[in-house]
Amino acid sequence: MGDEIISDVRAHLAEHDPDVLAAIEDVDRSLIQSELRRSPLERLVASVQQARFYERLAASRKSAQGGSR
Amino acid sequence: MTGQPDDPIVRLLSSLIEGNVEFIVVGGAAAVLSGVPVVTKDLDIVHKRSPENVERLLTVLSKLDAHFRPDFAQRKLRPRASDLTGHGHLNFDTSCGPLDVLCEISGARGFDELLPHTAELRDFDMKLRVLDLPMLIKVKSEANRPKDRMALPILMATLEERTKPRGQP
Question: What percent of chain B has pLDDT over 90?
């Protein structure tokens, strides 16, 4: 069932969005392989913690910019 | 459940599981659980909209102090059963962080339609039902928003890596 879905998506992209299809080859596979060595929950926790870090960083930059005005 | 990473998102998942809620993890969290190296900040789920399951979900949401977000007027509006039996997307803040409860996703797909396109993941004594990568890719390609188009290459590359025979470079 999955193969059929992906064939349809690939056919659609080939016709309507070839740049997206071409970009698949540019993805750094070592990042994916490194993720796949971790367990699913470890991946999830690492991902949300990274998101929270970016949010804190963005908030502190925003407040620093506000303070300098 | 023992030995699992200590993080609010894990506690959120544990609460849903311990409350016997039938749900499917979708969106960014499903991608990450499947090995896609992306950053996600919340948990998106599609729940079964049977009266019994909605009741169980409401109980868990109440324990998690869930209220609609954004909450500019700080009224802490709580979900009702009728909210959870509709077709919409409900965004909540909870004591364990943001939780998006989706009645349906793209193409009017609810729990029952998505169930054949899920994989069961077991990790740290936790059993999760997660939308599989092919359906996640299909949903993103149908959504066709810039952020979904940007995610497609890495989703498809991850699927290729996962299905590649071992030992193949």
Answer: 76
